[in-house]
Amino acid sequence: MVETHTKAYAAKLDTADELKAFRNEFHLKNECVYMDGNSLGLMSKRAEQTVYDLMASWKEHAIDGWTDGNQPWYYLSESLGEKMSGLVGAKKEEVIVTGSTTVNLHQLVSTFYEPEGKRTKILADSLNFPSDIYALKTQLKLQGYDDSHLIQVDSEDGHMLDEEAIINAMTEDIALIVLPSVLYRSGQILDMEKLTRAAHERGIKIGFDLCHSIGAIPHQLHDWEVDFAFWCTYKHLNGGPGSVAALYVNEKHFGTAPGLAGWFSSNKEQQFDMEHTLTPAEHAGAFQIGTPHVLSAAPLIGALELFHEAGIEKIRSKSLQLTAYMIELIEHELKDFGFVICNPVNEKQRGGHIYLEHPEAARICKALKMKQVIPDFRKPSGIRLAPVALYNSFEDVYECVQRLKQIMEDKVYEQFSNEREVVS
Ligand SMILES: *Cc1c(COP(=O)(O)O)cnc(C)c1O
Predict the structure, then answer these.
(1) Torsion angle of alpha carbons 95, 99, 104, 107, nearest 10°?
(2) Which InterPro entries match (predicted)?
(3) Ligand 1 pocket, residue 125 CB under 6 Å
(4) What is the average per-residue pLDDT within 94-102?
(5) Are 175 and 116 in contact (CB under 8 A)?
């Protein structure tokens, strides 16, 4: 029996890891322990290759690249949507790769927010990512309402949301609900199935922001009857900086006119008829707006292959093992240094990252970077550490905690100021 808090034990877990071969698919830097895959996933060799392939198709085909070559650009958003549909548990025509997270949220809210009679408010939460809240507020403004029409469910401890409190806030004046699947700070998973059922029992449409769950945990959006969802592709999906986002619309809403239309909302056969009356696509493709960002979609062609080969269930299972191991090591090695573990510890609610709080968090993160551990800092006192199933090893987790312990023992962080960087 090997003692669990040793490098030898981490190595043993790595030997037994079914996904260990995928680490070689990524560009990793020697000595560097990358724990920031929930902000920007690492570049895979496949993603790199498909970008080069796309560039070659432009060079070779010019305008005919829209319909010729291995990945005709005109159908790329649909074909990538199909490839991504398994990750969210949707039918292939319910997902389209398009836009950015925030633009997709604007699109979906302008489509599904239909204030009527007493039902005029939007329900969200107080812990969501700021961009979502900004978008919801401006959507309300466009309909002539002020911020008081945005109801944000509070958190008791500042880290977690209580699903019962959210359900209690689903009152008769709510027209639409937008919530995260996994909270970006604490990593709490919300029970999307339960919340969707509760919303529908009250006649309210509901959508989820999957930025922190896509590629980390499985979803069953279709079976849960979620109305809509949207997500970015540069975090756990490893699509690269600014890679094209995606959205899901349940098939029961096919035929609903897009709130923000453009010629790429069209049925593809009719798009080039150039009529001034839009004939929207009969599927999620109707929620596209303009010409797709083909160069920024290219890495996804390669990046998604890895998810197909590994399988999201195996990814989730390794991810849970990695975070459980990290929690165990943190509790054992760092107990004297004032860290508080603020992510849910139980598996049902624990997303893909660990969230620690410490009063010196900003400068501890700077010291970690100096020691080649890449975390991210969240104001005022949060440290996120994401051990990612496809490329992080158990030894990475071990190294991360050891280097953090060293920083605390030697007070290395004291040489930095406790302020955040411009991008943290
Ligand atoms: C990362 C993230 C975003 C980012 O939105 P962009 O439009 O891609 O910049 C939005 N919402 C959540 C919850 C996120 O985690």
Answers:
(1) -100
(2) DegT/StrS_aminotransferase, Kynureninase, PyrdxlP-dep_Trfase, PyrdxlP-dep_Trfase_major, PyrdxlP-dep_Trfase_small
(3) no
(4) 98
(5) yes
Which residue, of 309, 344, 368, is where some domain finishes?
A: 309
CA dist., res. 417 & res. 258, Å (int): 48
Q: For 234-247, what is each residue's pLDDT tens digit?
A: 999 999 999 999 99
CA–centroid distance, residue 345 to ligand 1 (Å):
24
Residues 222 and 271 sit within 8 Å (Cβ to Cβ): no
Q: Is the pLDDT score of 423 beyond 90?
A: no
What sign results for the dihedral spanned by CA atoms 236, 242, 243, 245?
positive
Six-digit token pair at 4? 């669990």
Mean pLDDT of the chain: 97
**Whole-number pLDDT of residue 420:** 85
Q: Is 339 in the pocket of ligand 1 (CB under 6 A)?
A: no
> Which CATH number is 158's domain given?
3.40.640.10
Cα 101 to middle of ligand 1, angstroms: 6
Q: Give the pTM.
A: 0.97
Residue 334 · residue 359 · CB < 8 Å: no
Do residue 279 and residue 387 come from a single domain? no
Interval 192-221: pLDDT, tens:
999 999 999 999 999 999 999 999 999 999
Last residue of a domain, one of 274, 289, 309: 309
Residue 2 or residue 97, greater confidence: 97
Helix (H) or strand (E) holding 178: strand 174-180
- Judge whether 125 is annotated as a binding position: no
Rounded CA separation 279/265 (Å): 8
Strand pairing category for 95-97 and 33-34: unpaired
- Residue 234 known to bind ligand: yes
Q: What is the pLDDT of residue 421?
A: 86
99 pocket-lining for ligand 1 (C-beta < 6 Å): no
Q: What is the pLDDT at residue 278?
A: 97
Report whether 302 contacts 46 (CB < 8 A): yes
Nearest-angstrom CA–CA distance, 46 and 86: 19
Q: Where are the beta strands (DSSP E) in 198-267?
A: 205-209, 228-231, 246-249
Whether 38 is covered by a domain: the verdict is: no
Q: Ligand 1 mean position to 211 CA, how many Å? A: 6
Which residues span the domain enclosing 282? Answer: 49-309
For residue 107, the one-letter residue type is Q
- 319 C-alpha to ligand 1 centroid (Å): 21
279 assigned ligand-binding residue: no
Virtual CA dihedral for 318, 385, 349, 208, nearest 10 degrees? -100
- For the Cβ of 132 lying below 6 angstroms from any atom of ligand 1, the answer is yes
Percent of the chain with pLDDT over 70: 100
